[in-house]
Amino acid sequence: MIQIFGYPLPVILGQLTLGLVNGSFYAMLSLGLAVIFGLLGVVNFAHGAFYTLGAFAAYVALNAFGINYWWALIVAPLVVAIIGLVFERLMLRHLYKLDPLYGLLLTFGFALIVEGVLRDRFSSSGNSYPVPDALQGAMNLGFMVLPIYRGWVIVASLVVCFATWFVIERTRLGATLRAATENASLVQAFGINVPVMVMLTYAGGIALAALAGVLAAPVVQVSPLMGSSLVIVVFAVVVIGGMGSILGSIVSGLLLGIIEGFTKVIYPEASNIVVFVIMAIVLVWRPAGLFGKS
Asked: Which residue of 66, 171, 200, 211 is 20 to 30 Å from 177, comparing CA positions?
């Protein structure tokens, strides 16, 4: 049997596949961060909180209103996006012309408030969310038995990520969004309501985080702490890919998930820090990130 670093090839491939699942979540979350930073210039530290709210929205929808998983994929991102809109209109929009540090501090404070409210209401213990009937079971890949739901997460995340990239980079709407961030007054002169575009862009980035939360709910325990434990890694992913780079966030998220999975096999003790080691190396070699611009 083929071995790599002393481990059988099926073990390596299995762990890489599981790493790809984590990479899918990294890609979706970092994509939302990149959209908000790239188009609005806001370092949205509340992204993990909106991810958590997406998972809790699905959990509450199921247990309080009987709304199943498939409807939750639509309803939860919409509800959380509305919360994001209120936050953007009441607070965040006043900081767009200031140093990004102010936006980071505001969103960090908002994240702490959300976490505190959820801990008070649901406690810190995790809550389980069932896998939908249509996605239960597993499939044999030859080198591992992969749960169908985890395969669905990979496919759904890739579709959402590259659809978002296509809209922003290859459509007229995306070109208008990018132009509005470069010269808002000129775009406004063409009759386009730039403040509304900015507001909807922020809501779109928040909806991506909430959607990731719904996808994660059956995989991890739905807990007030689930976002805070992930957002630091996601920020590292965004920095590696390049702040504001849509494609960079997608590619680096998937690759780092795979690298993290590989590290868990050959050197488990380093699996929690490998992303940050790579970030340090990338920043020394290319401060703007792999796909970023100076």
From this structure: 211
